[in-house]
């Protein structure tokens, strides 16, 4: 299989478009926007540093598919995403690159296995960064995006109170890691803000 934006878009549509809920339609649009933004970031880094061998199409693919696990369950959706990609015939090492959120801080630290939840490769780091600055449309600051995630988590009627507490407690630790990724991305891409990728 070729891991490019077109393949990622097809998988996102296949798994996320069969739902009539506004939430899932927003997640599909979010996936499209993250895929395109991740591609732009990776393409800029590839141009600036060809020796890094960044695969911009792979970064875009990961952006498109990173949330398909939500079709099974919002809780631990990244692990569901990996399983679903493997079921689609995608190599587990590639599927593993779709890890992108705060499960490291929420579970990995407690389990003593942060590697299980770390983004893989520069493309995985780019995906994590893109997911944390794109809700839908143009990028926003990590702080704005995190405030949105926290607010939606607080208001969730689908999550139990213990899960809400875990997410809200682990989020500040995850933000520090996300901001490190942002600094690395900016340095490699030679930019000073996310708006320069548009």
Description of the molecule:
The chain has 198 residues and is mostly helical. The protein has one domain: Orthogonal Bundle (Hypothetical protein af1432), CATH 1.10.3210. It is 66% helix and 0% strand. The protein contains nine helices and no strands. The longest helix is centred in the last third of the chain and has 29 residues. The radius of gyration is 16 Å and the shape is globular. The model has no long low-confidence stretch (mean pLDDT 94).
Q: Strands, helices and their partners?
A:
Layout: H1 5-16, H2 22-48, H3 56-65, H4 77-87, H5 92-96, H6 103-111, H7 121-133, H8 142-155, H9 161-189
Helix pairs in contact: 1-2, 1-3, 2-3, 2-7, 3-7, 6-9, 7-9, 8-9
Summary of the model, kept short:
With 198 residues, the protein is mainly alpha-helical. It has nine helices and no strands. The protein has one domain: Orthogonal Bundle (Hypothetical protein af1432).
Uncertain runs: none
Q: Please give the largest β-sheet.
A: none
Oligomer: single chain
What is the percent of helical residues?
55-70%
Count of DSSP strands: 0
Mean pLDDT: 94
User: What is the count of DSSP helices, taking H or I runs of 4+ residues?
Assistant: 9
Give the class-level CATH name: Mainly Alpha
N to C succession of SSEs? HHHHHHHHH
Number of domains: 1
What are its keywords?
198 residues; mainly alpha; Hypothetical protein af1432; 9 helices; 0% strand; globular
């Amino acid at each position: 299989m070729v891991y490019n934006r077109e393949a990622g878009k097809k998988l996102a549509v296949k798994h996320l478009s069969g739902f009539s809920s506004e939430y899932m339609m927003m997640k599909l649009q979010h996936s499209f926007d993250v895929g395109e933004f991740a591609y732009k970031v990776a393409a800029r880094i590839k141009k600036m540093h060809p020796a890094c061998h960044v695969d911009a199409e792979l970064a875009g693919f990961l952006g498109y598919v990173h949330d398909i696990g939500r079709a099974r369950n919002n809780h631990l959706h990244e692990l569901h995403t990996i399983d679903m990609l493997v079921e689609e015939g995608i190599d587990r090492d590639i599927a593993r690159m779709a890890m992108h959120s705060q499960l490291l801080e929420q579970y990995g630290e407690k389990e003593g296995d942060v590697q299980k939840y770390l983004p893989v490769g520069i493309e995985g780091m780019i995906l994590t960064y893109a997911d944390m600055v794109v809700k839908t449309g143009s990028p926003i600051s990590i702080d704005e995006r995190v405030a949105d995630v926290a607010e939606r988590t607080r208001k969730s009627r689908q999550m139990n109170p213990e899960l809400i507490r875990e997410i809200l407690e682990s989020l500040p630790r995850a933000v520090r890691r996300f901001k490190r990724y942002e600094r690395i991305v900016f340095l490699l891409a030679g930019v000073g803000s996310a708006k320069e990728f548009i």
